[in-house]
Amino acid sequence: MSNLFHKTILKNKLRVLTVPMKNANSVTVLILVGTGSKYEKKDVNGISHFLEHMFFKGTKKRPNTLKISETLDMIGGEYNAFTSKEITGFWAKVDKKHTDIALDWISDMFLNSKFEAQELEREKGVVIEELNMYLDTPTAYVSELFEDLLYKDQPAGWRIVGEKENILNFNREKLLDYYKSHYSTENTVVCVAGAINSRQVEDKIGKYFNKLKISAAEPKLSVKEEQAKPEILIHHKTTDQTHFCLGVRAYDMFHPQKYALSLMAVILGGNMSSRLFISVRERNGLAYYIRSSVDATTDTGYLVTQAGIKNDSLEKAIGLILQEYRGLKNRKITPKELKKAKDYVKGTMALSLDATDTQASFYTAQEVMGEKVLTPQEKLKLIDKVTVHDIKKVAEDIFLPEKLNLAVIGPFDKKEKEKLEALLKI
């Protein structure tokens, strides 16, 4: 994990990161843009994600989707794109001897996409089916409902993929308008990680991306968080299993206690020997999956536990989770438990950073979000500094009734909601 990254800024203000990895056989090219659904207005909610799809529809050099996908399929490369609340990303991972092909391919798509009206109309059907897939997948949909509950009707609470009506109303003018105002050299980072020579790659990126014009990006609105008591959102659906998210508002990515918070999530439900996995799954047999995780963006954050359980076990499962939340607040964890969580984080980080795509996103995500870019070793030092006392302090800070939220998908009605409201005490 000792790879050091190198950062340069081109004349047009585009930031370039290179991460040479001595023994790698692959190279990953990643472009991250600091825009996503939090940057949208209500009438174009979903446009960041729709635009991401349209980059794969053809350039002058590769006039259609077949020509675009064939370029990397012919060399066994992997490639994709994604949109989140604050980032849109495009990547390609190839055998190191095909680095030039990957750079040519991704820069062509990023700079020369045609965004044709005809393709746009066709893609509406694809994106609506993607939306339908989410709505039919409770494990994914319940997370969206949880954010809907936290942030309500503001960009942070809207769906990344958008609503059907919006998708049907997108046109080329709206797309180009969003592209021009949100894709700029100021909020874009290009990274190449793997078996590379940094200087050679920087020169190539300079040539490929030099026609990207200097421009400023539109800022996003800041998120308002207001909550006075525990809140519940129930989505009634006839399902064989109840899916729910039970969590609390927590810290954004710049908060000094974020490392303590992430270790606490590991202790709670981060792996198969975590407190909740043992309590809810092993001892009580209520769930197949249960996990706790942390979500942190530039201005929001939460800790959440998600599970899929028997329909008649919702109250019992919630009771067991709240019991663990209270336990962290009322009693210090043991030094042994903290060491186990730290070693788990170190181990998973070491394993994942063997891959060139993980190295690329490790550095580039920090850079594009405006964090101080730390190496893995620097991050691990901060994780190592977390004490038993820090964990208790974080628990006391976040496990409060007015920060508690529960989103549920299952065959439940209003009566059930009242029962659950009586349960949500912490």
From TrEMBL:
<dbReference type="GO" id="GO:0006508">
    <property type="term" value="P:proteolysis"/>
</dbReference>
<dbReference type="Pfam" id="PF05193">
    <property type="entry name" value="Peptidase_M16_C"/>
</dbReference>
<dbReference type="InterPro" id="IPR001431">
    <property type="entry name" value="Pept_M16_Zn_BS"/>
</dbReference>
<dbReference type="InterPro" id="IPR011765">
    <property type="entry name" value="Pept_M16_N"/>
</dbReference>
<feature type="domain" description="Peptidase M16 C-terminal">
    <location>
        <begin position="169"/>
        <end position="343"/>
    </location>
</feature>
<dbReference type="InterPro" id="IPR007863">
    <property type="entry name" value="Peptidase_M16_C"/>
</dbReference>
<protein>
    <recommendedName>
        <fullName>Peptidase M16</fullName>
    </recommendedName>
</protein>
<dbReference type="InterPro" id="IPR050361">
    <property type="entry name" value="MPP/UQCRC_Complex"/>
</dbReference>
<dbReference type="GO" id="GO:0004222">
    <property type="term" value="F:metalloendopeptidase activity"/>
</dbReference>
<comment type="similarity">
    <text>Belongs to the peptidase M16 family.</text>
</comment>
<dbReference type="GO" id="GO:0046872">
    <property type="term" value="F:metal ion binding"/>
</dbReference>
<dbReference type="Pfam" id="PF00675">
    <property type="entry name" value="Peptidase_M16"/>
</dbReference>
<feature type="domain" description="Peptidase M16 N-terminal">
    <location>
        <begin position="16"/>
        <end position="159"/>
    </location>
</feature>
<dbReference type="InterPro" id="IPR011249">
    <property type="entry name" value="Metalloenz_LuxS/M16"/>
</dbReference>
